[in-house]
Design goal:
single chain; alpha/beta; Rossmann fold; 2 domains; six-stranded mixed sheet; 9 helices; binds adenosine-5'-triphosphate
Amino acid sequence: MTSAVSVHSVSIHGLTVRHRRTTALDAVDLSFGTGVHGLLGPNGAGKTSLIRVLATVAPPTAGRVELLGGDISAPTHRTSVRRRLGYLPQEFGYYPGFTVREFVAYMAWLKEVPRAKAPAAVERAVARVGLADRIDAKVRTLSGGMVRRAGIAQAIVNDPELLLLDEPTAGLDPEQRVDFRALLRELGRTATVIVSTHLVEDVAAACSEVTVIGGGRVAYRGTPHALAALAAEAGAEDFGDNPIERGYAVALRHHRSGLGGSAGWGAGR
Ligand SMILES: Nc1ncnc2c1ncn2[C@@H]1O[C@H](COP(=O)(O)OP(=O)(O)OP(=O)(O)O)[C@@H](O)[C@H]1O
């Protein structure tokens, strides 16, 4: 008989991240399971700091971080997690003289994708981001949006169980964003996908859950639908361009004024 207990791929407790004197995250508790999770928040809220800890590229200042079934403070588990996750940083480095194929193959090698499977995995990842016709083009000849899509391809080449994307839609044109959101929904059927974005349309179209970060803390968690409904509840129909944007503004306003109480407010599940 299988257990009915839901297992979260990401479970963090009391996560604090400090950069010198700045507290980027302040004792945050959060967990994420299979699905697409949107991370929203103003500039400097702490989204990138959170994603970098989850990607195991930055150590927490304090707190416990469990990813894919184990604590990442254990070096052997951390190494295993690195093979099983995908990460698109906000700004990522690449060798401009590499072709898209070489770039994605290099990342597949770093992730220890088995040699026999790597060529097909690279072609599949590149096709999924719509770059199949440019697979043998040098990265330096690509447009900004295409480079970002190559970045998404390298993040998914190992079929990650945990996918971390820091502002993946920056620089994509509207048609590419629509395609990308469909890809996100597909990936979220089997993986835990965490996407930081400033575009509420991404959240509305692709995310099963949204987490709003404000001032290094969790300001709100809920479905995009529940976030959109907040503005109406709060009688705040007069600002923002669409319901999610209004809900987002209301969530942050309540968070800043220290209001709590209703489901979702500052709920660090
Ligand atoms: N390397 C660093 N050194 C000093 N301060 C930092 C560093 N990285 C981040 N910070 C600070 O930590 C806080 C959180 O930054 P973070 O980049 O996590 O926010 P963010 O929500 O991703 O913002 P944005 O939406 O602008 O990308 C900010 O006050 C930022 O200035």
